[in-house]
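Please, structure for the following, as tokens.
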Amino acid sequence: MIITKTPFRVSFCGGGSDMADFYREHGGCVLSTTINRYMYLTIHPYFDETRTVLKYSQNEIVDNIQDIDHSIFHCVLNEQRISGVEISSTADVPSGTGLGSSSSFTVGLLHTLACYKGEYVSKDTLAKEACEVEIEKLGAPIGKQDQYAAAFGGLNFISFHKDDSVSVEPIVTKGGTLKALQRNLVMFYTGLVHDANKILSVQKKNISQADKTKNLIRMCELARSMKKSLESNELNDFGAILHESWMKKKELAGSISNAQIDEMYEKALANGAVGGKLLGAGGGGFLLFYCPREKQALLREKLRLKPFPFEFEHDGSSIVYMGDRYWEEGENR
């Protein structure tokens, strides 16, 4: 048996600029971090080698991998011609909550299958291949940030260049700065779920509009400002940058926020939070706030939402377990 774990991500600033319609014209950038919440995947040969078993939110048992319903499983397993296995996925967080679960799944699946075949795969290759699967082959209206965040791990400034290349630059700070940042960040579950593809489809159509383009350019400027602040070990502007970026993002599509989310956000600002944002495409999921630690108890009391504790993660997609039996069988294959 092989087990991999792939982290979920929290995007602070620049989301939306990772879409090709924007970055091919203007260049894009995102500042994000991965957290200690994961997508786990396991694989081992199935007892009946004529069948393939897939376990996720549903269970599938197929005689022919062309009959697989799950779009990502179907695409990847058919392309790599892998069958006669049992693959299970388990996540710390449900899908549709804004933490990049779909891309973490895709990155994790590609990593798991590479290990199963005894092949080394770099983080950059994992991210590129995951983008190809989701964006090019399956036509998802998404950007590239989630795949690179999940593959590389850590606190990074990710740049999306006009020639379609991507660079990942780790943010280097003093240890005390990262600890202070993490202490001042709090996350809450809104109880609302969203369909990211529907929201992103609208956002993608709007990118060509002059005012939306202007917003995304400003969001990239804010991401660069946030990067400079962190590298200078200054957190004074972090909350204000989060707030301005959220205000700009809300204007990209009407479905990104709603009256209920706006009410939660305004209540948070009135009770200790300096700034924040709804994570992911919008419409639901998790609210992230920058709030001084001494004011967080009041914030929790007033919001009355489920807190979601987390810590920064630095490894990206990784192998958790590779059984000895697999190696013995691999030598005989």
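The mean pLDDT is 92. The longest strand covers residues 28-45.
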